[in-house]
Specification:
Length: 153
């Protein structure tokens, strides 16, 4: 794969991850606002066993925490420079092995770019630790299986 294609693929991966996070922000914001609105409209509880209002406020707080995490992940994604071609498995690199294609960024799972499936994983997962700092041609071991890295960029 030539350098231009590598940069384009990496840019598309970053853009898609940002888009997915933006959609998550919009969904969580809507859920949070709905929970707050439901709690506000409910008024005072009927009796001390009536927990609906507290449940809605707890849901709003949970959404707020998730929003904070998504915001932190978006900041991490912004740090990735698609123009930088990496020669070893590290944050922001794309790793192509014999069996899969990985993008080291934040934990998003399976995505499709240009009809190719990539798994977007974070630096905290065991698979990344098994391949960390390895280069193209290296073999790493993960879950009793050896895997060869074909390409890193």
């Amino acid at each position: 794969m030539n350098k231009m294609n590598r940069k384009e693929i990496k840019k598309k991966l970053v853009d898609l991850c940002m888009q997915l996070h933006q959609e998550t922000v919009e969904r969580l914001t809507a859920e949070m606002n709905e929970a707050y609105q439901n709690a506000a409209e409910y008024g005072n509880p009927e009796d001390w066993l009536d927990t609906y209002k507290m449940d809605m406020l707890s849901k709003r707080d949970a959404c707020s925490l998730k929003l904070q995490k998504v915001g932190e992940e978006m900041k991490m994604l912004e740090r990735i420079n698609p123009e930088k071609i990496s020669d070893k498995a590290a944050f922001g690199s794309v790793i192509i092995t014999e069996t899969q294609k990985l993008f080291i960024a934040v934990g998003l799972g399976k995505v499709v770019v240009d009809n190719e499936t990539y798994f977007v994983i974070s630096q905290s997962v065991p698979l990344f630790h098994a391949m960390k700092d390895h280069k193209a041609g290296d073999i790493f071991r993960f879950r009793d299986t050896e895997e060869k890295i074909l390409e890193v960029f």
